[in-house]
Recover the amino acids of this structure.
């Protein structure tokens, strides 16, 4: 199971712009490296990141090998209603990880 | 072909080595010499590749300079993790918002870094991440606005230790 760190304010005022920070542990092997014996190391990266707020997509990013290991992504959204923000990372070799965070909007 | 003998060398069956034998041997040696695996590294993306990747995003639209702020340190010690933040000057209303933010590089093996899709729902067109840079190069951030215009910012970054291509242990 992948380890993910997510920073979302637990409480927010309605209409407030909140910052969301996400970090997930992943090697992000670029596919351009070789072992000492010259054997290429196959690519193993996260290719897509999607965030949904109560089922509505709020952010999506396509990642390439130029993203550093343990991808750290921050973005913003408007706090509209209390509910769940869900994060999904998908990648090579059938990689998929999902995390959820609850937010209370007053 | 005439069977010219090479003095001082014995060919097949005890007879003097012919010019043909010598050439055959030379051919074998040449192949054997080339055989040890030569790892061919992928050529780094060139500025032309980056232009092509940008053109793929912008299409025929004009790429203007401005509105975008690419925040990246100008001197980086370790190219394996380079903090990189992109902020676009936009009210982020349903009538005028940033649709997408793309980041490109010149000299990594691939020109793309990240493509993020936003909407008016974002409230603020500001993202950040950590990227890899293999060499001293220029980074370009491109923002696509809801009215179909494209804006960009570019930053020259000096890298002391490059990422991506070092061998794994």
């Amino acid at each position: 199971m992948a380890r993910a760190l997510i920073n979302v304010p637990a409480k927010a005022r309605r209409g407030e712009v909140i910052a969301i920070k996400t970090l997930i542990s992943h090697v992000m092997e670029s596919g351009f490296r070789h072992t000492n014996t010259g054997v290429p190391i196959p690519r193993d990266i996260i290719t897509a990141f999607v965030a949904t707020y109560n089922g509505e997509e709020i952010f999506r990013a396509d990642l390439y090998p130029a993203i550093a290991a343990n991808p750290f992504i921050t973005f913003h959204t408007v706090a509209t209603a209390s509910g769940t923000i869900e994060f999904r990372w998908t990648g090579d070799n059938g990689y998929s990880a999902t995390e959820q965070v609850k937010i209370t909007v007053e | 072909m005439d069977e010219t003998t090479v003095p001082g060398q014995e060919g097949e069956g005890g007879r003097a080595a012919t010019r043909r034998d010598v050439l055959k041997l030379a051919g074998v040696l040449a192949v054997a010499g080339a055989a040890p695996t030569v790892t061919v590294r992928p050529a780094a993306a060139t500025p032309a590749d980056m232009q092509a990747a940008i053109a793929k995003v912008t299409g025929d639209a004009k790429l203007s300079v401005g509105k975008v702020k690419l925040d990246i340190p100008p001197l980086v010690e370790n190219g394996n993790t380079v903090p990189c933040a992109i902020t676009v000057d936009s009210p982020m209303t349903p009538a005028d918002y940033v649709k997408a933010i793309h980041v490109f590089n010149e000299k990594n093996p691939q020109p793309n870094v990240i493509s993020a899709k936003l909407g008016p729902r974002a409230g603020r067109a500001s993202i950040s991440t950590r990227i890899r840079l293999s060499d001293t190069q220029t980074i370009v951030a491109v923002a696509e606005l809801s009215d179909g215009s494209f804006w960009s910012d570019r930053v020259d970054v000096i890298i002391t230790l490059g990422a991506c291509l070092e061998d794994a242990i």
Notes: DSSP finds two helices and eleven strands in chain B.
